[in-house]
Design brief:
By secondary structure, the chain is α+β, with helices and mostly antiparallel strands. The chain folds into 2 domains: about 1-20 and about 40-125, no CATH class; about 150-240, Chitinase A, domain 3 (Roll), CATH 3.10.50. About 50% of the residues lie in helices and about 15% in strands. The protein has 10 helices and 6 strands, in the order αββααααβαααβαββα. It has helices spanning about 1-10, 55-65, 70-95, 100-125, 130-145, 160-170, 175-185, 185-190, 205-215, 245-275, and strands at about 40-45, 50, 150-155, 195-200, 225, 230-240.
Amino acid sequence: MKTWIIAAALMGAPALVLGQTLPTKEPAKKEAARKPAAQGDAIARVNGVAVPRARQDVVVQQQASRGMPDNPQTRAMVREELINREVIAQEAQKSGVAKNPQVQTQIDMARQEVLVGAYINDWLRKNPVSDAEVQKEYERVKASTGGKEYKARHILVDSEDQAKGLIAELKKGGKFEELASKNSKDSGSAQRGGDLDWNVPANFDKQFSDAMVKLDKGKYTEAPVQTRFGYHVIQLDDVRPVSFPALNEVRSRIQQQLTQHKIEGLVKSLRAKAKVE
């Protein structure tokens, strides 16, 4: 449900599906604002049925969000598309397909999706993510990341005794990479000799990261480290300062994440008020 609502709120309408799909172009300079079409104004009539200019305005606006300019060529293409749709829609009514229960359900769901998307977009306009919220989240993530990142290896096994046995083999001169490849149940890293690549401590379970950051370069844990995944033997290969991106580089990503959190909070509050049986 959460994914669907977020998609309904943040995604635009799909590109035209009949006739020639409008191509994607680089955003054009904004043209002079057009006056809103008068009520009942039509761009065409199909068998006496008006095709409202409002439909053309909506589709052009959708395409403009994808980079298409609002110009006579675009409007002409949209007009032809809407005429095609009206022709087929009239034939669909004649054929009786509109009375099909499944079609009626799809129409109801499409209407509901438009309403949900419109409401959420309107709510977000009234409750936007502020610059202060973005800055606060940036500082929070930056603080939780810390100033260093670590390149570590591990061997993950099911039991403490297995981990102790591997540590004993390492003390006898066994190679960490070979033992990881043969024994680790973390198949992804096992293929790389247990290599976990560069990570900040926050990316790991606390028990794992606490043990990892205490190690000197080239050393391994001499006691098994237990996490929710099992028992680990950890080796630290290297440490380096974190290169944290500037706020401007990640601002849009943070805004998207905070927007999703706002929508989830909205849905949660509405669900709490609703009587669901």
